[in-house]
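To the team - cobalamin complex, inputs and output below.
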Amino acid sequence: MTERGTSPGPRRNPRVLLVDPYVAREDPMERKFVELYPSLGLLTLAAYLRDRAVDVEIVDLTFARDLRPFTSRLRAFGPEVVGVHTKTLTYPRALEVAKRARASGAITVAGGPDSATRTEFYLTAGFDVVVPGEGEATILEIARAVSEGRGIASLPGTVVRDGGRLVRGPARPFLKDLDSLPLPAWDLVDMEGYLGAWERSNGERRAAVLTSRGCPFDCSWCSKPTFGRSFRQQSPERVIEELRALRDRYRVNYVRFCDDVFGISRPWIDRLLTLLEEEELGLQWECLARVDLLKPDLLHRMRATGLARVYVGVESGSQKMLDLMNRGTRLAQVERTAAALRAEGIRQFWFLMLGYPGETLEDIEATLRLFRRFSPEEYSVSIAVPIPGTRFHDRVRERLRGGKERTKREGGRSLLFEAAYPESLYRWQQARFGLEAALGKAKGRLSPRVVRGIGKVADRFHEQVATPLLTGKRAPPGSGA
Ligand code: B12
Ligand code: SF4
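Output:
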């Protein structure tokens, strides 16, 4: 190479190496719960580039021990551009990848949620370009520009650093038609590694599918750096094509729909369900959905086409808190949906949040009561994480606690801002949900009297010992605590 990223001699296809720096064995959560899927962002970028005469490979470090698979591909393939998918969790590895890629002479490009939120950090720490938005058309243009020896500053959809200042190219409009995207380039990653891991863990061959991009809702703590409040969907016919390909090529029998919110449009989901009924693909599936959209008649149809599990953002058992979060949901909808899911025999996974500004002990108690009433099969109760760029973050900006690593995972267990109560109180409350879940599961095995008795003792301990100890004051009368 004469200059970084440019190659002399006869014109040939641009060469792009895409990297997922996530290493599963370094992730304690992954060792507990297998939730392995290849990055759909990278698979789609790769398929898009390949369709447009770019030579593209993916190094997916998910099953690797270290960076060696990357360094050997870097040497053998000699890419002009190395593109890295970024998440907060994986940024140290992403920076290592960039360092080695730059040393080889390649242009380094960061994309994905973390670099979209802290662009300057990535540009200072070793990347040449950040693509904060939708990546397909932009990485193609970067690859062509680099390969032809043209400059990359100011290309639409990019940010670069010029000395001390950031140079942003003009905004790039979103792709209009998601159906025009090729099927993900599954063949460029170790699909059998993923499917085999699932099969060994629960007998299912699971794959992830995305039917839409973006979400039009506006929850005040939600970070949507890439697609914002935009919302586009593939046609139900295109979704079926992808499901059929997964089943036929990889014997997939369980699909996780990874959309931010699945089934936002009722006519769309009705049509998809009709096609699923007609096609008889024999798949089970799961999705994340909102309680206001999951009407009982819809759930019944979804169940009939293989819906096995739904993730629902319940968040709080207090209407006041749902309103403060701008969730746009009503407690009555939560109750209706939880009951309908139970009646249909669909597993429910609840997301709950503690510590959001404005929450009192009584609100937490209301959440616990709701949880106790419906005993969801699975749940996660996290301490609210103020993610930069959100209204929640703006609200607590002055009260952020320094020195804490801002990963979502860390945040779920630690308090990252000065909230109404100390971190130990929230940790204790998390333990109460744990006990409640265990009691819910024990209901079949222990007599209801014993379960109630343990619950009462725990509540008394909470009221008389834990709350005064952890808040430093006696619980106000009638607070429920
Ligand atoms: C599906 C999903 C998962 C799935 C699958 C993950 C996977 N391997 O892809 C599962 C459940 C396993 C998962 C796990 C986790 N996830 Co997740 N996940 C998502 C979700 C809902 C969709 C991701 C997706 O497929 N998007 C669709 C594709 C098309 O978009 P995309 O990936 O952003 O890619 C586009 C652009 O960003 C850009 N782009 C992306 N990479 C690159 C690279 C280059 C070079 C370029 C040019 C462009 C580019 O172009 C792409 C196409 O336009 C997002 C929320 C969201 N809407 O993005 C959260 C999200 C990505 N996850 C998040 C988190 C925190 C996690 C976990 C750490 C959570 C945990 N369990 O503790 C783990 C990490 C595990 C891992 N393997 O990395 C956060 C990341 C926040 C952050 N700043 O890091 C998000 C944004 C949710 C949120 N708002 O908090 N996740
Ligand atoms: S939390 Fe879910 S519903 Fe709310 S804005 Fe974010 S993606 Fe949309």
